[in-house]
Amino acid sequence: MRHSFFYTQAAAILLIAPFLGACSDDRHDERLAAAGPNPSLSALMKVADADAGARKFGQCAACHTIRKGGADKNGPNLHGIFGKRMGQGSRAFSYTAALSNAGGTWDAQTLDAWLQNPQKVVPGTKMQFGGIADPLNRADVIAYLQKEAD
Ligand code: HEC
Fold first, then answer.
1. Domain limits, the chain
2. Quick one: which of 37, 70, 91, 125 has the most CB atoms within 10 Å?
3. The Cytochrome c domain covers which part of the protein (predicted)?
4. What is the CA radius of gyration of the chain?
5. What is the rounded distance in angstroms from the CA atom of residue 32 to the CA atom of residue 65?
6. Contact 25, 140 (CB under 8 A)
7. Cβ of 106 below 6 Å from ligand 1
8. Can you tell me the distance from the alpha carbon of 74 to that of 6, in angstroms, rounded to the nearest whole number?
9. Quick check: CB of 98 below 6 Å from ligand 1?
10. What is the pLDDT along the chain (150 residues), one digit of tens a residue?
């Protein structure tokens, strides 16, 4: 009995392991396929999942809070950032001149570029972030940013 229990568990772990590795509990590949071949950003935003984005926000949380009235950390609080002017998410935060003077608005397009490579959107920004390479993972985070607003 003990043995068969062990083997059942081992088999279950072997079955689950590849999914954990690919993080596909969020149905990433299925959603990506649903967006069609070479999906545009707007096609990706249609299949984006804010709850999956909430989990992926874990890689931002060292520097950012997102709940309303949350503290600024290394980076500014991001509540309601979607639709705001760049460099104006938090009144109290000391933005670089580069970001305060950037002049753009945070929409799906600008956030997508920012989350891929902040320096490319605003040269001289102090957001030290390696970027999210996967386009659907970026879209998930953007959907979450959009949702975390009043
Ligand atoms: C290592 C710290 C760090 C990490 C990790 C980080 N950021 Fe930032 N972020 C910053 C800093 C610092 C700024 C302010 C940059 C400036 O003033 O030039 C910033 C600014 C921003 C802004 C602009 C805010 C505004 O008011 O205009 C957005 C949007 C943003 N970050 C989103 C994210 C998201 C989403 C993630 C995770 C995918 C992330 N950041 C990860 C440090 C970080």
1. 27-147
2. 125
3. 48-149
4. 19
5. 28
6. no
7. yes
8. 46
9. yes
10. 556 655 555 555 555 444 444 455 799 999 999 999 999 999 999 999 999 999 999 999 999 999 999 999 999 999 999 999 999 999 999 999 999 999 999 999 999 999 999 999 999 999 999 999 999 999 999 999 999 999
Q: In a mutational test of the pocket of ligand 1, which residue from 127, 140, 141, 148 has the highest number of ligand atoms less than 8 Å from its CB? A: 127
DSSP of 71-139: PB-SS---TT-TTSBTT-S-SSS---HHHHTT--B--HHHHHHHHH-HHHHSTT----------HHHHH
Q: Is the pTM of this model over 0.85?
A: yes
Which CATH architecture group holds 27-147? Orthogonal Bundle (1.10)
The CB of 81 under 6 Å from ligand 1? The reply is: yes
Q: Would residue 67 be called left, alpha or beta, if left means φ above 0 and alpha means ψ between -120 and 50 degrees?
A: beta
Question: Residue 146 Cα, ligand 1 centroid: separation in angstroms?
Answer: 15
